[in-house]
UniProtKB/TrEMBL annotation:
<dbReference type="InterPro" id="IPR029033">
    <property type="entry name" value="His_PPase_superfam"/>
</dbReference>
<dbReference type="InterPro" id="IPR013078">
    <property type="entry name" value="His_Pase_superF_clade-1"/>
</dbReference>
<protein>
    <submittedName>
        <fullName>Histidine phosphatase family protein</fullName>
    </submittedName>
</protein>
<feature type="signal peptide">
    <location>
        <begin position="1"/>
        <end position="24"/>
    </location>
</feature>
<keyword id="KW-0732">Signal</keyword>
<dbReference type="Pfam" id="PF00300">
    <property type="entry name" value="His_Phos_1"/>
</dbReference>
Amino acid sequence: MRRMRFVIVALLLGLCGMIEVAVADEASAWNALRTGGHVALMRHANAPGGTGDPPGFRVEDCATQRNLSVKGRADAEKIGARLKQEGVVFEKIVSSPWCRCVDTAKLLNLGTVETEATFGNVVVLRDQRETLTAGGRALIAKWTARGNLLVVTHGANIFALTGVSPASGEIVVVKGGSDRASPVGRLLLD
């Protein structure tokens, strides 16, 4: 019985520690984005249907792809409103050419969205994974502006760049000007 209490207390302390880390991680992310000079890597909002796209999909035809759900569309709008409320501004916004990413970026309502092929889905384009990831790292390394860059892409792309597997709509913040893409913090806003 005594051993059981010890295990329960240890688990609770561990859980409290994880919560502290998550709060610190979020605080670091907000601080970095308010400071500027960072890159926010955002996974597109909720798009049900697993990973990848249906057979025969075409990037130029949204009807052939996995798209945002009603929840995903609402979450994107809510995330954009929260970023504005927190005073976060993006100097530039780029998106994967996939419709779920472009739609997420536009629904954030934070500015003009440009598509960037190097953030195309590395699951679907697995034969180009290394090239796409290297292109993403190069773009982050070139970001030396005072403002922030927002990149809306796929979870697998963010994982390839940072080692973090984000949830739908989650933002992983990294320092611009470095090809290491080491996470500064994370924001889960939906």
